[in-house]
Fold this sequence. Notes:
The chain is α/β, with parallel strands linked by helices. 40% of the residues lie in helices and 19% in strands. It has helices at 35-50, 73-77, 113-120, 147-154, 157-166, 172-177, 190-202, 206-217, 224-239, 243-252, and strands at 5-7, 10-15, 19-24, 56-61, 66-68, 85-86, 89-90, 102-106, 109-111, 123-127, 131-133, 169-171, 183-185. Helix 3 (113-120) packs across helix 4 (147-154), helix 4 (147-154) packs antiparallel against helix 5 (157-166) and helix 8 (206-217) packs antiparallel against helix 9 (224-239).
Amino acid sequence: MTQPSESSLLTYERYDGHVAVVTLNRPASRNAINAEVAQALHSIVERTEADPDVWVVVLTGAGVDVFCAGADLKEVAAGRADSLFTEYGFAGFVYANRRKPWIAAVNGKALAGGCEIVLACDLVVASSEASFGLPEVSRGLLAAAGGAFRLPRALPRNVAIELVITADSLDAQRASDLGLVNRVVAHDQVLVEALALAARITRNAPVAVRESLQVARRVHDLDEISLRELTLACRDRVRASEDYSEGPLAFIEKRAPRWTGR
């Protein structure tokens, strides 16, 4: 494992097996997003997208209580709210066009923009003490970084609407029961479980994973005909990869496949 870093407020670690771990590192400020974190996370997205050796990314928060409390309200109150956004949206992340799977390892409360960061990820592993909420309306704000429409896509409609307009939170177990969370584990097992899930993904052909993910992500955005067209385009890119031949060959030879990601 190597430990380069984009910023003291955002750490980046490389693990064996094509996995990167990104940690929001402002525990004293509830891992809230300021301008430096937004720019650093934006850079991390570009870095992981450009690195052919990174196949899955895990995103977590430092400390024991909070994954991310969203926007740093000191920045908002000072009139610097725009600094928390890049061309990739809030935190330099929520609207980024990412091809690779991101797993949110939620160690505590994911609130406001923190919840919206979770909703922008593909899979969620949560501590049994974690919770999720969009409290923006209690502060005269609107969950404008994807939460107001992504939460109703991730949860039953009425449950999501209740959360959006009451500012209440959802505990980890109910979030799991409703399908928002993939795994609920003890606090000290959150990163362990997220890495295990990442390892399960990296057993598969990375090009096939990325292209399959592109289709699955667009289910709520496209009609059936458009989804068929997208599926065929993704299939063609999979067929053009070296791994398209390697998978069947490994099966015939009764050995583990040797994926190249090309």
